[in-house]
Give the backbone structure.
Amino acid sequence: MSEKCYVARSSKIAARMMGDEMMIMLAPESTLFTLNEVASVIFKAADGATPLDEIVAERVCSEFDVEFEAALKDAEHMVKELAGHGVLIVSDKPTTQSRAFAQVAR
Amino acid sequence: MSHLVAEMSAKALKLGIPLSVQLDLTYRCNERCVHCYLDHEDHGEMTTSEIKDLLDQLAEAGVFFLTLSGGEILMRRDFFEIVEYARMRAFCVKLKTNAVLIREKEAKRLRDLDVESIQISIYSHRPEVHDAITKMPGSLRRSINAIRFLRSKGLHVTIANVLMLQNLQDYPGVRALGAELGVEVTIDPTITPKMDGDRSLLDLNIDQAALEHVFREEGMLENVGESCAPPVGPDDEVLNSLPCSAGHTACYVSPYGDVYPCVQFPLPSGNVRRDKFLDIWRHSPQLNEVRSITTRDLTGCSHCSNVSSCTRCPGLAYMEGNMRGPSTQDCEKSFARTGIQSVNLKSKRSSVAGLVQIQNVAAISQAVSA
């Protein structure tokens, strides 16, 4: 995955925080996902405008006791998997896809 | 229920989150179904901006599953604006509709808004039966056309088939129609009282023998053997369980902003025009009373042998006069499944037997005249 990779939440999903986990439903397949605390932080920060490495450095490494390299590798793996399901959209340029989903992050 | 949804529900219960809310957008309707429990007059529905504000509050409260229902939801001119707003707030949106007003354009719009599922009421595969129930000529044809449009857009559609005396013979036909259209069919043999407490609609319910027959139809219950097996008596796990999700992880909001534990549980618990939703959810004395009830607290049911498999609805029990009491309609369903009378049915039948002591009365009368 490119170092400057931008990640945006798809507008096709339903999502809500429950405690420290994010629930995500993908319609119309009605596929349900739950993300753990770290993955939820990345998902919430996936605004399409902030590069993934910046999200990892500023949000993940600052909140959790993890090394940047290891955290970035895990984040890339997670992003690839969720992008494969259509939950996230990956781009090498900034996008505005996630603006509408501001309230998901609550 | 999938494993993940069950896990989510358990977590929502622990955290006090209203995971699912049904919001009725209107009680107005273009059909006049013979079994409908609603008053279709508009007594002051929430405006578009009131509904948007409520959706903001529901999102803030953690609501994930949002069911929009009515009345007929498409009777509201702002229906698509509301759905769009709900999707912008990332709700998992489910719709309940008769679909009469859905054509290709509306189906495409719903697909573009990524609604999760659409439940459509179909009472029969025969127009003369369906249209007689809805009192709207051509309604079956229009609803079926809508299902085809929605399916062609890849949307997830379910047919809801409510059984009553008028259409009892037709559920195999509806199931065949569902198979032809590629949609799931759910069958519900429960007619409920009107929201104002009028119980005359209950006369439309199918009788015990028909219920028994329906429950034994192939595919009607997930596991007929298990569901219809003689129940084991109540144990501590059952007695400590909660009667249902109403008021615990789910609630209902009417078009006028009234909050109830469930659409089928008309216990007034607050109004979002007066108070914030989250304040009502957390502090309503009525909701907190509902939450305080475990199976152990239920009069009669707590020592009924059917309790472990009964689908007792606390709302129907409330409408019968006691939210801690039995729901006779569910007692009858349990009886139809298991063949064992509930404590409530036994008590009702023994009191009926008491009134039918005609022979004794006649004997006394003869003795008196002698």
The longest strand of chain A covers residues 13-18.
